[in-house]
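Quick start: what a row looks like.
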Amino acid sequence: MSFNEKNPLISYSGLPPFSEVKPEHVKEALAYAIGRCKDITVEVSEKFKEDPTRSGINIEKLKYCVDDKIRSVRIDKTYRGILAVQEDT
């Protein structure tokens, strides 16, 4: 994915330098974030299809969830995803 490396909402460490943010940076940063999420989702989905029991996936039951089929799955160090498990038939 291509993006402007000078966009302070994309290229930073820690908190972005808000004094440098311009309105045009927001649209680009959102497009970048959405694209990155899509890429990560596809990557994790493929790994899950290959082997849903692999150790790096780490699926956990949610403690206070009303729906017993909902689980949390590790996407990477930053993100977790939500999925529904199929009922046993």
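That is the whole record. The first helix runs from residue 23 to 50. The chain has a mean pLDDT of 84.
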